Structure formats: structure tokens, C-alpha cells
Amino acid sequence: MPESPDPNLPHEAASAAPLSLQPSSQDVESDIADEIGDHLSLSARDLQLAGHPAEEAHQLAQQKFGDVTTIRRRLWWIQKGDEVMLRIGFAILLTVVILAVAGLGIGGWQMSQTINDLGDTLASMNETQKSLLESREQEDRPLAIRGRLYLGDKSRPASYASVDVHQLPGGKQVERLRADEDGRFGTSLLPAGPYTLVASLVSESNEAQSSHFVPDFYAIQSGPISNYPWSKDTTVELDVSMIGLGQVSIELTKPLPTEIAIDRGSHRVTVSPALSIVIPTNSKELPIGRLSDRQNNNWPVIGLRGLRESAHQMVESPWSEPQDPSGSSKRIPIATGKPILFSRLPNTPRDDVFRAGTYQLGAYVTYSVAFDGRSYPAFEIIGEHNIAALPATSRKSFEVVDGRRTHLRITPFDDFEKSLREDIEKAIGNESTIDLTKVAAARQAPRPVKVEVAGTVEILHTPAIQEDGRGLHGVLRSGGAF
Amino acid sequence: LIRSILNPQRFMLKNPDLLRAALEPVVLEVISGGATYGYEIARAIQQHSEGKLCAQEGTLYPALHRMEKQRLLKAQWKVSPEGRRRKHYALTAEGRRRLEALRSEWKVFSKTIGRILGTAHAGIARPEFAA
Fold first, then answer.
1. In chain B, which residue's Cα lies nearest the Cα of A64?
2. How many CA atoms lie within 13 A of A359 on its CB side?
């Protein structure tokens, strides 16, 4: 079981590698946008896990946060206000010095040169000041994202490829475009904010449509694109090269207990397990797409929800919750013994598509804890880099093969509920008073499960293909069954 | 400290001045308790206060940034398991000293205010208006 090196920090925080220690002044705006974006994404994720549909979750997250633009401006002034005020103060000081010098009557050509120089300095500072203020005024100005798509080699354009523009966080599709013959595209003016692009091209040739037509499907997703006036570049180049694509389905063979209740005196602790699945990406050879961010770190992009939020971790909770008989529940019903396709997740029509290759899947159960009605959400402690910390039975290598679906099975161990109860009871002790810190610490111990590869089946592509004279375009759909 | 500050019997939590004053000790306390990044801090405050403080989560960030400027907090950027950049906060030595001072101050303050309010309720005569 992995242990946090610093007991005062959540494991994920302690294990993550530091980036730059302090944001540079040039990146203040981006840092603020990243910090707020992270908050909104986490908030929306938790709301989704609580049963809200994706769209509603993102709207609620924004409502809970408050006015993002105002907060961003306030943060900018906190970070940069001193500098701006210092410049203004310096400008005033310079003016006073100039007037004083002029007033003393120390004239002459040299003096006038000095005054001219000082005047220039003052003017340039005013310009800087003006541009700073202008940039604040323009921060909500709509902008377009432009770019070019190519196939392997930049001299080979991905002519007429489709480009879906998704807003982040949440991945709401805001625009669908078609690249021109040279692979160039440009969106309409979009509100400032982060976006991601999914470019796809189904077959370059005019093959006849048939009921079992298997198209060559090219797809790529960009990393997050910051579409702000201060962004350095919103021009994107994507290689929509030929890649084999397969699918992955996952099956949970036994339901997890919905809730375990432990009583101590007049207090009650309830534990709600949830299954977490991690499929690490390889930042050197990315599964579907790549784009460098401003610090030259590649954004790992993968199927699953990653197609929408650049995440490479999927958490579904609670898997074992029975479907609401009234039909009003928005949660995904998880039927025991049936495959769970990623594509069944809300707003993720193609998220089960993986680039062909070798992957590793790690699975474990975390649990949220409620103490006398107050809930403490589960920690997500297994990140991309420490999946190896899971027991060998809880992680498995698997192949994604072009045109086939790989089926994985996840099985909780036989004594799962009993051992979980014992561990929680051990963590909180036998005293009649429950130590909250122990309860919180207990959440950091993930429960292993057994992961197996059940096999692969051929994907049957339904003919959702349209021919428009330029080639065949359509959506990859899957059929077939185990 | 958090429970004491957030006791709804003592504060009208919609009063922005009181909220602003309470936010600094609450944030320092929560960070000293292990919360490190904005969302986690907001969630911890939310849980402890049962949603009575920080109704708009965004208001937390100006407080965090101000305290970072005042060197009560130090910040560090890391990569989250989801692959996003995440800013983590921790108390500086000065922040820890400030928290200790605020804890003591708060005890005296809350005791004093409690005593005054208690006295008022106990029977300081209100002026009667003539009919």
C-alpha cells in the first residue's frame, strides 16, 4: 500500500512532482486561469459523482464559485497591483525630479537631452501602463482558434477533416468545422476560455458503403488550448496521422457494497466504496494526440473522459448503486456481469476508443466517509506515476488491437466487505469517541481488486457513414458482444 | 477555532465584514490541518461550516493570494493526478506564528463579545418610547 511521505499532505500532493516553484510574472494570468480552472473541474467532477448530469454539474460548479471574471481581476490586482502602483509612483517621482531640475534653472542642451530621455521613459511607462489596462478590458474579447491538420508529414494536408471544438472544462461541443483542402481551419469568434479540439478523418478514399464497412479512422485530440487575449499562440497544428484504433470495455463482476455503517456510542460512521480505474499514459508516445503546453510538457491525452478533460483517470461512483426505480436517477446503472463501456458515460460518445498499443490498467476501491452525516470525500491517491504501487493482482497490461475491442474484468476479492469493515474498525479504534483524524487517514488506504483480461472481439462498425463527394465521413460505432 | 468561529449562534454569517475577518484564521487553520489546494481548502471550510461560510467558493482565492503576498503562505505548483497544474499552499513559519496569535486573540475576542452580548440579553434596559 503506498504511504504518503508527509502525513500532513494528501498522498497525491505529496507524490506529485513539483513544476516551477513560483509563477513568473509573465504567467500570472495563466496561473490564475489554471488555478480557477482546476477548482471548477474538481467541483464539477464531484457534482457529477453526486448524480448531476455533466452539463448541469459545470453550471452548478460555476454558480458555487461565483463571478469568475471578477475573481480573476481581483487576483490579478493582488499579484500585480504592487508593480503597477510602483510604476505609477516612480512616474510621479520622475515628474517631480524633472520639474525640480527645470525649476532650478540648470538648462542647456545636455539638460534638455536628459529631460527628453526622461520624457521618453515616462511615455513608454505610460504606454506599458495603458496596455496593461487595455489587456484587462479586452480579457473577455471573443477570439478565434486557427490551425492546420496534416497526415504524418506537414506536406500532406488532412484535407476536409472534421474538427469538433469543445469547451473546457466539461467538454461541451461548441462548434463543428471542416478543414479546407490544405487542412486549414478557423473557428468563429469564441468567448475567451480554454478549449480542446478533436480532429477526425474517416477514410480518404471513395469506397462503396456497405453494411460491414470498416473505415480507416483517424482521430486526434489537442491538449487544452488557452484562448485568451494574452495567450501566446492559439494557432494549432495537429497530426491526424493514420493510427490503429481499438476499444476497451470493462466489467465489474460483483457489486460493491453501497454503504457500510459502523456505530460507536452515539456516533455513526458510514463508508461508501467507489471503484477507481487508472490507465496511465505514456508521455513519450501518446495514445491519441499531443500538444505541447507553454512549459513544453506534453499533455497526455487518451480515450475515456480524457477526450473531454485531458484526464487520464476515470472514477465512477457509486458503481453498485441500484437504478432509481422512478427512473429519475441520472447515475449510470451498473449491471453486474455485463460489460461497462466507457462510451456509456454521459457526453462521451467516442471515449472508449484507444490508439492501438500496450496499456496498463490499475483498479482499486476508495471510499468516502460520513461521520454523523458530514461527508469526507474519497482521496484519489493513485496517480499516473505510482500505479506500480498497487498490488500485482490489481494492475494488468493489456493490448488494444486495431479494429478489436479488449474486454477487461474487475473482481472485488471474496471477503471485500468483511475486510473493509475490519480495517475501518481498526482505524477508528474501539473508543466511544471517534477520532476524526484517524477516520480521515483511513480514507487514504485503497482497497485492491483483481484485474483480468477476458479477451478481444472484433468491432462491427455500423454504417453511420455519409458520403459527400470528398470521401466518407462518419462516426465510429461499435457492435459485437461477448 | 473553526467550530468556535463558525458557531452560528455568534455570527450573522451573511455580514461581509465579519466573514472577511473570519476567513484568514479559518484558512490558516484549515491549511494547518492538511488541506493544500484551493478546492480542498474550500471543501474543508464548507464541511466544517456546514455551508455557512464561503458560500461563493471563489471568494477564498483573494484571501489565499493576499496571504501568499504577506508571506503567511507559500505556494508550489505541481501536477495533479488528472494532469492539470495545481497550486498547493502551505503555512510559512510566519503563517504558523500568525495562526497561534489569531487563536489566542480569537479566544479573548469571542469571550469578550459573548460576555457583552450575554449581558445585553440578561437585562440592560432598552429605552422605552412614549406612545
1. B56
2. 29
